[in-house]
TrEMBL record:
Record flagged with keyword Amino-acid biosynthesis: no
Name under which the protein is recorded: LacI family transcriptional regulator
Organism for this UniProt entry: Enterococcus devriesei
Alphabetical keyword list: DNA-binding, Transcription, Transcription regulation
Residues covered by the HTH lacI-type domain: 3-57
Length: 335
């Protein structure tokens, strides 16, 4: 037979209301009483009805994780989001809440899903796993005062939005500096996105590193259309590039394939450095030289900051910078 609040109260020799206050961690109950009642709950195998408890608080007891529009195969297969979800789930479990995912293959449908989750009170708040210019989802969350934490730096309202991030401009700078230290002077920045804040920040970091060394900067090598891939060998030849800073690991593998197709060997002819240190970095040779951004820490901190908002422990914007480190492997050589 399942133990009830009354059973716990009887054995602990307290009132049922005291047991309820212990369950809700009410400050009016002493630490000694809480410890004693909780031990009895454990001994009796009693588990609080979290759903019923949160109905009283008008809480959904769930967090929403909003993935970026999955409008490309790279995004759809990016392990970064699975790592992030795993960290969010683990941290949410510590708060005794669950997670739900909002995803779609375009921004309009994604916004509809988020609005539905919010208005139907399916979640108490959201973790937004991306940051883009003119993003309708982040605008909706902000305008409707929905609790949310952003993974990444906001495109605007930095002082008002709670976010956790790496220093992506510093990442771009240090990746480029690593190539410069290896003797490279003609370096390109390559990306398959051009509206994400992360693109601007890492490209600015690339520009900063090159300018500080009085080296030529180049327009970003953005691969958005099929014709961009066709022009790749012409761009390499025209710039005399010996190295690429690539937006992330998955696209770096695509660039290595493209270079190989056109007769460039990595790293002998073209060095490559990227970001994220995902599982793809060591799936095929040459292993990728990449910068680890600690996505698990981003997910953990993002969840903690969202719970602080939901529990009304924090009301102003805050930036948390997660450390990163370079992982040297096989795609960069000295010249």
């Amino acid at each position: 037979m399942t133990a009830t609040v009354k059973d716990v109260a009887k054995k602990a020799k307290v009132s049922p209301s005291t047991v309820s206050r212990v369950i809700n961690d009410h400050p009016s109950i002493s630490a000694e009483t809480k410890q004693r009642v909780r031990k009895i709950m454990d001994d009796m195998g009693y588990f609080p009805n979290v759903t019923a408890r949160n109905l009283g608080k008008q809480r959904a007891n769930s967090l929403g994780v909003i993935l970026p529009p999955l409008d490309s195969r790279e995004r759809l297969g990016n392990p970064l989001y699975l790592e992030l979800l795993n960290a969010v789930n683990a941290t949410a479990a510590e708060f005794q809440v669950t997670t739900a995912v909002a995803s779609a293959d375009n921004s309009a449908t994604l916004l509809e899903n988020v609005i539905r989750m919010h208005r139907q009170k399916q979640v108490d708040g959201f973790i937004l796993a991306y940051s883009e210019k003119d993003d309708p989802v982040s605008e909706y969350l902000f305008q409707n005062q929905v609790p949310f934490t952003l993974i990444g730096r906001p495109a605007k309202r930095e002082a008002d939005i709670i976010y956790v991030d790496n220093d992506n401009q510093l990442l771009g700078k240090q990746a480029t500096e690593h190539l410069i230290e290896k003797g490279h002077k003609n370096i390109l920045f390559a990306s398959n996105v051009n509206q994400e804040v992360i693109f601007f920040e890492r490209y600015f970091g690339y520009q900063e590193a090159m300018m500080l060394q009085s080296l030529p900067t180049h327009q970003p090598l953005t691969m958005l259309q099929p014709e961009d891939y066709v022009q790749f060998p012409e761009v390499i030849k025209a710039t005399g590039a010996t190295a690429l800073v690539v937006i992330d690991d998955i696209f770096a593998l695509r660039m290595i394939q493209l270079a190989t197709l056109h007769g460039y060997k990595v790293p002998d002819d073209l060095s490559v450095i990227s970001f994220n240190n995902s599982i793809f970095a060591t799936l095929v040779h040459p292993y990728l030289t990449t910068i680890d951004i600690d996505i698990s820490d981003l997910g953990r901190l993002g969840t903690q900051k969202l719970m602080e908002q939901i529990e009304q422990k924090q009301s102003s914007g805050v930036q948390l910078v997660v450390p990163h480190h370079l992982v040297q492997r096989e795609t960069v050589r000295s010249i």
